[in-house]
Amino acid sequence: MSSASASRANESRNTLRLWPQSLFGRLIAASVLAVLLSQAAALVLIAQEREHFVLQSSVREWTRRIAETALMLEPLGAAERATAIAQLSAPRGSRHFHAPAPDEPLRAPRGPMDPPRAYVRVPLLTDFERTLKEQLQAALGTGFEVSVERTPDPNRPAITLPVPFYEARELAADQASAQRYDVTVRFADGDTALFRVVRMPGGALLPRNLLVNLLLLLAILVIALYAAARNITRPLSALARAADSVGREARPQRLPERGARELRRAARAFNTMQDRLYRYLDSRSRVLAAMSHDLKTPLTRLRLQVETIDDPALQDRMIKELSEMEDMVREALALFRGLDDGEPAAPLDINELLAGLRQRFAEAGASVSVSGRALAPFTGKAQALKRCLTNLLTNAINFGARAEILVEDDAELVIRVRDHGPGIPPAELERVFEPFYRLESSRNRDSGGTGLGLTIARDIAQAHGGTLTLSNLPHGGLEAALVLPRR
Fold it and tell me: Is the peptide bond before 112 cis (omega within 30 degrees of 0)?
């Protein structure tokens, strides 16, 4: 993989990390994102509609004013019209212009449509210019000629029209962005009147109360979405916790059937499944308890009869066979009973537990070493975990001479039990967890046991929400990895 591909892959993973992992978080994030996008689209549409409205309103207002002024000037004589145009073109508060001299021509300032016209370049009109020209021409009629262009010289005298009230605030705050247009109206006698309009390029800004209302609407929607998402995810979280507690607790509580119809149906189905499961386990436990009681009686009679045998060698062999039968019955009952022993989960010092097991095996002449430490107590069933680790250590010592325990503690508590034996063929790594299954090389009960030790150990690991796996070490030997999640 190239460095660019690796960089893109890392960016993709970082992006995924930013996205919430929980269903509740994803519902909220997706809903808020959808609301934000819809609000942004609504703002864009409102701004476009408002700009169109402002454009039409401004053009309509300026058309009315220009048409009224032009129609007022049209019947005047040349001198009176020039005086009126000069007065209207004066800055506000200064409407005083010198009267034209008798020999001075009474004409308005030359406009862009005055001759000569041979080399006048007609620019492309914008929507505003074209709209204003068309409406003004329609308002004045065919007796007038109208032209609209961007103001080439702001200092050129012109009749400046007032800015509409809805653009006055923006124009006062931002004079530099204002756009000025010159509107030239040519009368039938050839005189011209120059009008100037000033507008903001984007029309009037959106009112502040609109943005406040949209933010308030967004807050209300987020609160409503939060409540709806929580109403959906809370029963799902309860369902997940109840499902996780199956096998951990002797009798988990029934799941409350509340929420939407689909959620109530899921809770009802889970409770029904849980009832069926525990009824089955109860009936199986009662049958096995009766079998255990019925088996113990003949085994006890056989043991009493074996003790009367005069042949010591035969007596020892039969006693050993009876002991193996009793062990098998006891292990089978322990397997079928599972963890329904009433032992509560409690904080457990793993370091102390491993030290006790090492001392116990050392007293029996076995070599067990421990490396690593658990950083904090683990909440679990002490007797069940002790039995799980005892089974793993027994297998390691029986088939590998000595056992090594490695403890790793981070997000998960990992306890690895290693031996120095021949290992297990890869195809058999999972089959050895089956009840009463033993490898061909361990058919001899002197070393093979009952075939239930690993099965019971895995059941205990799974009852604690963990896993138990076997793997062959690269340099020989077998490793049993017990992974217990910390919650």
Answer: no
Instruction: Scan for tokens 């609000």, then name that residue.
Output: 39
Whole-number Å distance between alpha carbons of 261 and 255: 15
Express each pLDDT in 204-243 by its tens digit.
556 667 778 778 887 888 888 888 878 777 787 777 777 7
Q: With contact defined as beta carbons under 8 Å apart, do 461 and 396 qualify?
A: no
Q: What are 30's two structure tokens? A: 């997706």
309-345, pLDDT tens digit by residue? 878 888 888 888 787 777 777 766 666 655 555 677 8
Strand pairing class (192-199; 159-160): parallel
> What phi and psi values does residue 225 have, to the nearest 5 degrees?
-65, -35
Q: Which amino acid is at 345?
A: A
Q: Mark 378-402 as b/e (b = at least 16 C-beta within 10 Å).
A: bebbbebbbbbbebbbbbbbbbbee
Is 406's pLDDT higher than 60? yes
Q: Report how far residue 89's alpha carbon sits from residue 194's, in angstroms, rounded to the nearest whole number.
A: 8
pLDDT > 70 in the chain, percent:
74
Closest CA to 459 of 487, 442, 435: 435
DSSP state, residue 468: E
Q: What are 64-115's pLDDT values in tens digits?
A: 888 888 888 888 888 888 888 888 887 754 433 333 333 333 333 444 444 4
- CATH numbers and ranges of domains, the chain: 23-199 (no CATH), 343-485 (3.30.565.10)
Distant-in-sequence, close-in-space partners of 156: CB < 8 Å, separation ≥ 6: 109, 182, 194
pTM, rounded to two decimals: 0.49
Q: Tokens at residue 238, please?
A: 């309860």
The span from the first CA to the last CA of the chain, in angstroms, equals 37
For residue 266, count CB atoms less than 10 angstroms from its CB and return exposed for 0-12, middle for 13-18, buried for 19 or more: middle
Better-scored residue on pLDDT, 477 or 35: 477
Secondary structure (3-state) at 202: coil
DSSP string, 18-31: HS--SHHHHHHHHH
Strand order in the sheet with 412-419: 367-371, 402-409, 412-419, 478-485, 467-472
